[in-house]
Amino acid sequence: MYKELDPMLLSQLRLAIMSYLMVVREAEFNALREETAASAGNLSAQISKLQEAGYIVVEKTYKNNYPLTLCKLTPRGIEAFEAFYVDLKTYFNQDQV
Amino acid sequence: MENEEKVLNPAESLRIIRETIDVAKKGVQENGFHFLLWGWLVVIAGLSEYYLRQMHRGLEPSMVWMIMPVIGVPTAFIYEWRRDKKQQGQNIVREWYGMLWLAFGISLILAIALTVRAHVSPIPVILILAAFATFMSGILLRFKALVFGAIVLWAGAAICMVVPIGEHALVQAGATVLGYLVPGYMLNQKARSRHV
Fold it and tell me: How big is the CA angle at B89 (ends B84 and B91), to the nearest 5 degrees?
């Protein structure tokens, strides 16, 4: 039985952001941009959507006097990603995932 | 990622998760430093203990193991401290890796204390614990040589059952060379080839 997938994570860039954060826990905006090869504007827009959904939090701080944007997964985001992965597996045979 | 709102199908979703996690895991590459450091210290201490036992030089042979806390701990600490300064950000796999070896260290200290107190050779227990941590490291880093190394260490522990206690240090040195140093050098070689 196929499960309906979370539409928030069915976007290529949002899923890439979430997957990356699942491993590194937190990442600077520039690191996310480098890893996802996305434009700054697009990345910023998708980060805002994930933030609105409560999947990530964005902290703006300073490092060596330079502004720093740090993205972190929230417990809700982790739960959503894990649920998404479990639901995704219903679309494949066990040996494909 | 040019398409701003590209809606994925399940196969694409799975591919993106895998690709992104693979990229993120590259930050966890180990260079085998700890395997080489601790491996050589164990080999030196094990062979020295065996030699002193055979020679009856009047020294307490097991005292040679003091090189582990005296040389190993400060060296490992300085290395990690310098590496932490270079690396950016957290990484969950690196965290698990660190926690695994921390748990190994705590278990090792307790196991040595308990076995020495019970007048039992600590070496088979040390080999079993090292095998467990090496096996899990192999799984986490996806490096098969470490998994084979763990099997060698388990085999070393099994061999201790059939050889005299006086020979345990020799078995440990041999198992460490094959199960710890060889995968350590392979890991180091892999790290060097990535930076060429």
Answer: 95
B12, B23, B97: best to mutate for the A interface, most A CBs within 10 A: B23
Q: B121 touching A, CB under 8 A? A: no
Residue count of chain A, please give it: 97
Q: Is residue A76 part of a domain?
A: yes
Q: Does residue B61 surpass a pLDDT of 90? A: no
User: Phi-psi category of A39—alpha, beta or left, where left has phi over 0 and alpha has psi -120 to 50?
Assistant: beta
Reply yes or no on whether the pLDDT at A10 is more than 80.
yes
| A90 or A76, higher pLDDT | A76
Is residue A60 included in any domain, yes or no?
yes
Residue of A nearest to B4 (CA): A42
CB contact under 8 A, A26 and B23: no
Contact flag A24-B13 (C-beta cutoff 8 Å): no
Ordered by start, the domain boundaries in chain B are: 30-195
State the residue range of the domain holding A84: 7-89
Instruction: Check residues B92 and B47 and name the one with the higher pLDDT.
Output: B47
Please say whether the dihedral angle defined by the alpha carbons of residues A51, A53, A56 and A59, taken in this order, is positive or negative: positive
Q: What is the CATH number of the domain that holds A44?
A: 1.10.10.10
Query: Which residues on chain B are in Cβ contact (under 8 Å) with A97?
Result: 14
> What total number of domains does chain A contain?
1
More confident residue, B140 or B183: B183
